[in-house]
Amino acid sequence: xxxxxxxxxxxxxxxxxxxxxxxxxxxxxxxxxxxxxxxxxxxxxxxxxxxxxxxxxxxxxxxxxxxxxxxxxxxxxxxxxxxxxxxxxxxxxxxxxxxxxxxxxxxxxxxxxxxxxxxxxxxxxxxxxxxxxxxxxxxxxxxxxxxxxxxxxxxxxxxxxxxxxxxxxxxxxxxxxxxxxxxxxxxxxxxxxxxxxxxxxxxxxxxxxxxxxxxxxxxxxxxxxxxxxxxxxxxxxxxxxxxxxxxxxxxxxxxxxxxxxxxxxxxxxxxxxxxxxxxxxxxxxxxxxxxxxxxxxxxxxxxxxxxxxxxxxxxxxxxxxxxxxxxxxxxxxxxxxxxxxxxxxxxxxxxxxxxxxxxxxxxxxxxxxxxxxxxxxxxxxxxxxxxxxxxxxxxxxxxxxxxxxxxxxxxxxxxxxxxxxxxxxxxxxxxxxxxxxxxxxxxxxxxxxxxxxxxxxxxxxxxxxxxxxxxxxxxxxxxxxxxxxxxxxxxxxxxxxxxxxxxxxxxxxxxxxxxxxxxxxxxxxxxxxxxxxxxxxxxxxxxxxxxxxxxxxxxxxxxxxxxxxxxxxxxxxxxxxxxxxxxxxxxxxxxxxxxxxxxxxxxxxxxxxxxxxx
Length: 614
Fold this sequence. Notes:
By secondary structure, the protein is mainly alpha-helical. It is 73% helix and 0% strand. The protein contains 28 helices and no strands.
């Protein structure tokens, strides 16, 4: 019997891995060629650029880490193995996430039983929000893997009288913290657990276990802290952005509970760090080290809280409600947008947090007399509290999946057992908890209009178009005319898609300045580039769309006039340029108008009544 159980555990884990990997790989294949995946934006782009720098040999960098550091090194490794932009990178992420399903199964098996473990594993395997993040260059798959490994090693260590087991749990927790520093909040709770609750024989055993836990944490985190000190002469444990994020989550103008950039910060991962530094040093009146800057923004956040405690209380309650809501709050990418506009696979009715969280509440109640279940609950609760104290987005919440799926699996398993025994009285409280939890999670708290994601998607198409155009210019310079034409055609198709996304966004929000400016810049730049490349017919068509869409935009009429001039259509050029001068008499418009009128006068002197070239 003893040999049968490990074999069953191994085979079930393998089966669950295969299920998880299959659905994730299918999803990755379906979306891998989409521009929103191929051309990373926001944090994804920051990680992508960091990975490229590592591949080029810049292993240490020159600044304190601002973003959690472990993922860019993994990404650089995957780029080296599969190639930058390869679907192999995304499949590797999907496989990492699939391993987390196995750890969730093992965790539930230690805590409860085989049936619970299988249910928990299936719930995690079919959690479609995880599929969504597997295809994006974000640390979510790695965080899920390390969080699941930590949960497994914690419940395993709690059932053993071994310091080595706690060393492994500490090492895993430290590595998880290198992907999301929030996990460090759990450390003092874990120390108290070892001191007061863990089933260890005496003070000496508790001390050895605590020291082993600490050793694992130090081995994982110390290299990063040392590296930060070496490159910047500043002691920063992992990253220097905690204070800034705390301020974002709690300044008084943020009443949404989600990310909202302060007025002095451009909501872009490439600019956020510099903007916070500039404003912090302006307010402080001196240069600040990264650690000092983080502490400064913590102080500013506490001042905001003290200035309006009632707002802080209401705001924190809203953030808690958002954390336990069914909706996946977007950041740079939107799960709901992908589900509606990219792939129907995300609309498959597999379990999401809207059902898992109420089930998990039932599971917690039913497992309330199991000591180790409380350790897993504390692991979840400390992480959830850390998110609520800052701000909510979908990818911040998803690392709670290991605990949530284990407790949800136990609720389903227990319900089956109680129904089989027809013990309906014992089902009253869990049923009431589920009903209440379902009501809480389904609250209508947040809406998306998708205008932002149309802008992001348009930007992704635009970057792809520019890559094709640059390749076209290289091919043309090398004498490959057909290749250049092919790349120009690919660029043109992507720019058409860019324009389509911007226009769809403006249909949602006609007054959205970001979208309007992006469309204006796109059309103007595209017309200019086509004129420079000698493709005057394309340039004219784009310029006409520009002036029709933005009739009061003077530079658009200037571009249109210059294209007519290049085509020899001087009368039309004069009309367009005269319109530009009426709107805004800038030097370029007036100079071009004077030039065209001079040419028209010369033509009239040479050939009176001469018609324009059609």
